[in-house]
């Protein structure tokens, strides 16, 4: 069985009368990237704070790196790193000084701190920034420095709260690459992001949080296949074939110029085979076929802010 880096069962949290988490379950295997999505105010940051010992849950059980954040907070803290939306980088210090400060906070021996700082400056391509005040670094460099500072303590589990918010596309891709390299080393990543493409690119599994509950969970592909909007586009050689197919399938969306028909469906092999068999029975020839699945934006819109009835249908 895979070892779980993070496990939560029935997690609950309210602020005063405001119920934020109404019993959520999480199972995150070691060495994987998990992404928690949800609209603003859904409780993503609250979840991160509960898992990282910064907040106490009202109910439920949590295990992080095998330890309970409530009874063994020091053990949990020794295993995790957290980088928030607000950078921990001190602008007046150089990148190297920021890293050494972090090493001091973790009570690393001097020589070990220097060694790890040098290693991280090289690995994160920060040598140019090593001796300049952080204030003069680009946004992408500061974000890399921020993540590097989290890594000084060699955490096995890293919480990344919106790691690329405000970065340009190139720096965002650079950060993604870094995250992938960390996971290749066996680190577990808990990612919150407002960029659905980011979750799509990085996450092994995604959970969507809304109304205090996890309303959907799965791989990006699983989530996409669950919502309407997917279709199969059939390409025909001439208008006569297209007419015959449209008559057989009763399809509404057609493009006579491109000689294509759109058939709603999830594009599963079962559905495709049934579709092609049906046309074959009528001796209608299909020249080409492409499957279009909804993107994560469609998933997000379909799943969040919906009444429970709609969610049930999509689940
Ligand atoms: P997200 O990270 O998904 O945007 P948060 O976890 O920050 O959501 O917040 C969830 C809800 O809890 C929001 O409605 C927010 O206003 C509320 N909230 C967060 N922190 C506090 C707090 N310290 N006191 C009262 N309400 C809070």
Detail the topology: elements first, then pairings.
Blueprint: E1 4-15, E2 18-29, E3 33-37, H1 44-51, E4 59-64, H2 73-79, E5 80-83, H3 95-105, H4 110-123, H5 139-151, E6 157-161, H6 169-184, E7 188-192, H7 196-202, E8 205-210, E9 213-218, H8 220-226, E10 231-235, H9 239-249, E11 253-255, E12 260-264, H10 269-281, E13 288-292, H11 296-303, H12 308-314
Helix pairs in contact: 3-4, 3-5, 5-6
Bound molecules: adenosine-5'-diphosphate.
Describe the protein.
It is found in: Cell membrane. Keywords: Antibiotic resistance, ATP-binding, Cell membrane, Membrane, Nucleotide-binding, Translocase, Transport. GO terms for molecular function: ATP binding; ATP hydrolysis activity. Its main location: membrane. The chain is of the alpha/beta class and 315 residues long. Helix content is 39%, strand content 25%. It folds into 3 domains: 4-88 and 148-224, Rossmann fold (3-Layer(aba) Sandwich); 90-136, no CATH class; 231-292, Alpha-Beta Plaits (2-Layer Sandwich), CATH 3.30.70. The chain has 12 helices and 13 strands. A 6-stranded mixed beta sheet has the order 5-6-7-3-8-9, sandwiched between helices. A hairpin with a 4-residue loop joins strand 11 and strand 12. Helix 3 (95-105) crosses helix 4 (110-123) and helix 3 runs parallel beside helix 5. The model has no long low-confidence stretch (mean pLDDT 89). Adenosine-5'-diphosphate (ADP) binds at residues 15, 18, 20, 38, 40-46.
